[in-house]
Amino acid sequence: MQLAVNIAVLAAIYALVSCGYVLIYRTSRVLNLAHGELMMLGAYGLFTTASLFAGYPLLAIATSALLALIVGVLVYVLLMRHMAGEAVLAAVLTTIALGILLRGTIILFWTAQAQHPIRALGLTNQSIAIGDAKISAVGLTLIVVTACVYAGLYAFLRYTAWGIRMRAAGQNPLLAAQRGIGLHRIYALAWGLATFTAGLAGMLVACDSALDQTMATIGLKAFPAALVGGLDSLLGALLGSLIVSASEVLIIYYVDPLLSEVVPFIVLLAMLVVRPWGLLGTREELDRV
Amino acid sequence: MKRTLLLGLLTTWVSCANAQDAYVIGLSGALTGPNAGVYAPVVEGIKLYVDHLNGKGGVNGRQIRLLIQDNSGEPSKAAADAKRFLSQDNVIMVVNTSLSSTYAPMVSESKRAGVPLLFAGAVCPKEVYPPADELQFCTTAFTPGYDTRMAFTVIKEMAKEPVRIGFAAMAIPISRAEMDYAASVAKQMNMTPVETQISPPPAPDYTPFATKLKDANPNWIYSWSPWISEVRTFEALRRIGWQGPYVTIAHIPAEEELVRLKDPNFIVFGANALFQDNQPGHRDIREAAKNAKLSYSVEQMAEGWIAGMAIEQALKNSGWPPAPEKLVKSMNDLKVDLKGLRDGGIEWTKDNHFRAKQSYRVYRWDPAKQAIVRVKDWTEIGAK
Question: What is the ipTM of this complex?
Answer without folding.
Answer: 0.89
